[in-house]
Amino acid sequence: MSAYAAPLEDLRFLFEEVLDFDNGMAALFPDLGIDTALAMSALEEAGHFCADVLHPLNRSGDEEGCRLEAGQVVTATGFREAYAGFVAAGWAGLSGDPAYGGQGLPRTLQLALDEMVSATNMSFGLFPGLTRGATEALAHHADDTIKATYLSKMISGEWTGVMALTEASAGTDLGLLSTRAVPNGDGSYAVTGTKIFISSGDHDFGGNIVHLVLARLPDAPKGVKGISLFVVPKFLVNPDGSLGARNPVHVGSLEHKMGIHAQPTCVMNYEGATGWLVGEANRGLAAMFTMMNAERLFVGIQGLGVAHAAYQTAASYAKERLQGRSPDGTTAPAPIIVHADVRRMLLTIRAFVEPARALALWTATQMDRAGHHPDADTRRQADGLVALLTPVIKAAFTDFALESTVLAQQVFGGHGYIRETGVEQLVRDARITQIYEGTNGVQAADLAGRKLLMEGGRLPEAFFAQIAADLAAARLVPGAAEIAGPVADALDRLRTLTADLQRHGEDVVRTGAAATDYLRFFALVALGWMWVRMAAASLSKGTETTPFHRAKVDLARFFMAKLLPQTLGLEQSIKAGPATLMALVGDLF
Ligand SMILES: Cc1cc2nc3c(=O)[nH]c(=O)nc-3n(C[C@H](O)[C@H](O)[C@H](O)COP(=O)(O)OP(=O)(O)OC[C@H]3O[C@@H](n4cnc5c(N)ncnc54)[C@H](O)[C@@H]3O)c2cc1C
Predict the structure, then answer these.
(1) Residue from 115, 136, 424, 437 carrying the catalytic annotation
(2) Which residues does 539 contact at the CB level (< 8 Å), separation at least 6?
(3) Residue of the nearest CA to atom 26 in ligand 1?
């Protein structure tokens, strides 16, 4: 596996030339004095940490995995120290609420950090990633006592967070869950049940482990309207904030799995464990969605990170590996990067990674607006755009990520199937991102069946109007019109498909049959939009174009010629409707 290089040049380009970071952040965070220079110096430091500390542990962590000793998880060698280093450097609290000791820096920086952590060590990244989501759920829904007890220690990273939803019989449909919570009579509850597949369920990093558990109160209605959210710590917390008695929250076993071996995925038994209600009784799923939405974006960023890692390793291999003759016949053996098919694979990965990073950061700026803009209407609109894009980022980024890791593996030929090159680990690690945090099928259903209809169906058009405005502006930049044209055409077709889905919103089968194709179509347009913005910014430099900017324009053209046309096939498939999917009767499967 080649060394990891943080995408600092690309981040600087996006901040300075595409996203107008300085003006945007000055308006939203006037007291922080945050600008590109400050952001880049923080991200440079983060890049060093990821490359020097997390990346070397990725392979050894995969080989060693986690183990259970006397009921406690022991993480792979070096993880405990790496986590301590991550916390000591302040990375855990980067975007955390300053009222609880966080640094309060923009989400835009947080997402850039998340990408680097995920690129270098997906297993590690889940510890802080889940903690942050749990913190957000508590900040939004818990009472002041719970907030005072947990938030500052979780934001600093001293204590970690866990999301405990899934049970053997309740995965996608959480309405089927059966974990019980019975009042103890003192304001607390006794939580009893078994959860499976719980990431970061236990570890040996020290501190407390704060489980957010979905459970049912006695006499709760059946289904999703009878679910409540509880905070259940591994150690009870004394009034002075120190750790008290051990709560009966036990690891039943560790799951043996395809990838992310250094991440302890646990079966958790809550054996009358003491917990406290978060938010209103029977409204737990809505509260948990604060965490789930945060994690969905985080998982999309995991996809981006692992795809970038795959690109780096495959590109450096392709420049070194000598095989065959160059197409002009002059060099033999030639590095495999001379072959059109190898170039196709590398360019396909990169043509996804770069606009995905841009789209993620643009979405993060919307999160910053939603949290900090003085105007309530602007905050609401930004929040709507984030809601619309969350399933797109989760599902499309992770689908493209798996495709990217497989392409990178293919660049390595047989050596990609052998463990020591490290690329097969990326394939195994990437695979889970399509499954957990709501499968990609469920994300597609969320987009096509719910998000398109939210706010009276206005959300997608608000997004499309922004794209259309940027395309119109780009057409004025010399050389950019030919790049913007194909996206404008795809956008028109997407608008028509969207209106059609909205019109038939109540037809669940029709929507379900279209959903996955529709989400990919939507994502290709969004990525194309980002290519137009990046290409227009690069072309607007005129004669001062650098090799970096020329590459942006070349890649934008590649995307328009080779990847965006997928929308034509997707459109046909969507228009074919559900008939062929539903025709085969059950017994014939
Ligand atoms: C490594 C790992 C880590 C995990 N970490 C956590 C964690 O930290 N906390 C936690 O609570 N859970 C966690 N999970 C659980 C994960 O989120 C679930 O596995 C996932 O949500 C799917 O649930 P399921 O496995 O029961 O699949 P099912 O719900 O049985 O789904 C099976 C298939 O049916 C499809 N399907 C189901 N319902 C529908 C529908 N309504 N419409 C269309 N298609 C549908 C799905 O898309 C999927 O393809 C983890 C899982 C793994 C493997």
Answers:
(1) 437
(2) 477, 478, 479, 480, 545, 549, 553
(3) 171
**Structure-token pair, residue 447:** 């987009």
Annotated active-site residue 461? The verdict is no
C-alpha–C-alpha distance, residues 95 and 91, integer Å? 9
**Contact status, residue 165 vs residue 210, Cβ threshold 8 Å:** no
Identify the sign of the CA torsion 560, 565, 566, 570.
positive
* Sign of CA pseudo-dihedral 522, 523, 528, 530: positive
Q: Whose CA is nearest to atom 50 of ligand 1?
A: 197
Among 122, 165, 172, say which to mutate for ligand 1: greatest number of ligand atoms within 8 Å of CB: 172
Q: Which of 296, 290, 300 is nearest to 523 (CA)?
A: 300
Cβ–ligand 1 contact at 298 (below 6 Å) = no
231, 194 in Cβ contact below 8 A?
A: no
Sequence-separated (6 or more) residues with CB below 8 Å from residue 467 = 487, 491, 525, 526, 529
Ligand 1 neighbourhood includes 292 CB (under 6 angstroms): no
Per-residue pLDDT of the chain (589 residues; tens, 9 = 90+): 678 999 999 999 999 999 999 999 999 999 999 999 999 999 999 999 999 999 999 999 999 999 999 999 999 999 999 999 999 999 999 999 999 999 999 999 999 999 999 999 999 999 999 999 999 999 999 999 999 999 999 999 999 999 999 999 999 999 999 999 999 999 999 999 999 999 999 999 999 999 999 999 999 999 999 999 999 999 999 999 999 999 999 999 999 999 999 999 999 999 999 999 999 999 999 999 999 999 999 999 999 999 999 999 999 999 999 999 998 889 999 999 999 999 999 999 999 999 999 999 999 999 999 999 999 999 999 999 999 999 999 999 999 999 999 999 999 999 999 999 999 999 999 999 999 999 999 999 999 999 999 999 999 999 999 999 999 999 999 999 999 999 999 999 999 999 999 999 889 999 999 999 999 999 999 999 999 999 999 999 877 789 999 999 999 999 999 999 999 999 999 999 999 999 999 889 9
Rounded Cα gap, residues 516 and 171, in angstroms:
20
Atom number of ligand 1 nearest to Cα 162: 8
Residues 332, 75: contact at Cβ < 8 Å? no
Report the predicted TM-score, pTM, of the whole model to 2 decimal places.
0.98
Q: Does ligand 1 have an atom closer than 6 angstroms to the CB of 199? A: yes
Q: Residues with Cβ < 8 Å from 442, sequence gap 6 or more?
A: 172
Using CA positions, which residue lies closest to atom 35 of ligand 1?
441
Q: Is the dihedral of CA 114, 118, 119, 124 positive or negative?
A: positive
Residue matched to tokens 């301590």? 84
* Beta carbon of 198 within 6 Å of any ligand 1 atom: yes
* Residue among 310, 401, 391, 356 at smallest CA distance from 528: 356
Determine the distance separating the centroid of ligand 1 and the alpha carbon of 180, expressed in angstroms: 21
- Residue 176 alpha carbon to ligand 1 centre in Å: 13
Is 556 within 8 Å of 507 (Cβ atoms)? Answer: no
- CB count within 10 Å of CB 308 equals 29
